[in-house]
Amino acid sequence: LSAGVPTIVTPVFADQADIAKKLAADRHGDGTVHLSKVTAADLGARIRKVCDDPEIAKNCQDLKERMAKEDGVATTVSFLEKFMKEEVATGNYKQKQDALLQRIKK
Q1: Where are the beta strands (DSSP E) in the chain?
Q2: Chain-wide mean pLDDT for the chain?
Q3: Residue 7 backbone phi and psi in degrees, to 5
Q4: Which residues contact residue 36 at a Cβ distance below 8 angstroms, ignoring those fewer than 6 apart?
Q5: Is residue 49 a contact partner of residue 8, using CB atoms and an 8 Å limit?
Q6: Whole-angstrom Cα distance, residue 42 to residue 33?
Q7: Which of 12, 33, 66, 68 supports an S-S bond with 37, CB 3.0-4.6 Å?
Q8: Residue 65 C-beta-side C-alpha neighbours within 13 Å
Q9: Confidence of residue 81 (pLDDT cuts 50, 70, 90)
Q10: pLDDT band at residue 30, thresholds of 50, 70 and 90?
Q11: Is 40 left (phi over 0), alpha (psi -120 to 50) or beta?
Q12: 22-34 average pLDDT score
């Protein structure tokens, strides 16, 4: 997406099916069924669909421009510093993890 072109997600595990749905909903690409079930015809049709759709092309270019303006490293460092200060150093993170483990054990 940072290159300004649509993405096709062929889910294999974890959250990839959700990512495929989000891409399609936001009109930045599309997704297929699970990799073990996708056919060449289906994949080809989806590639053609996202490449031929001017709205998807425009959305991808707009996203590329927005992404280029972001400073991902600075944002990540800021998030981690805040997390360490407000969650780890205070013990909040440990309390939350302990509570989660207790719920799982039930």
Answers
A1: 7-9, 29-31
A2: 96
A3: -120, 140
A4: none
A5: no
A6: 9
A7: 33
A8: 5
A9: very high
A10: very high
A11: alpha
A12: 96
| Under 8 Å between Cβ of 56 and 50 | yes
Residue 106 pLDDT exceeds 90? no
**pLDDT tens string 31-71:** 999 999 999 999 999 999 999 999 999 999 999 999 999 99
Query: In the structure encoding, which two tokens stand for residue 15, read together?
Result: 């959250």
Q: Alpha-carbon distance 100 to 105, whole Å? A: 9
Please state, in angstroms and rounded to a whole number, the distance separating the CA atoms of residues 23 and 94: 34
* Spatial distance between the Cα atoms of 94 and 8, rounded to a whole number of angstroms: 38
Look up residue 13 and give its two tokens. Answer: 């595990």
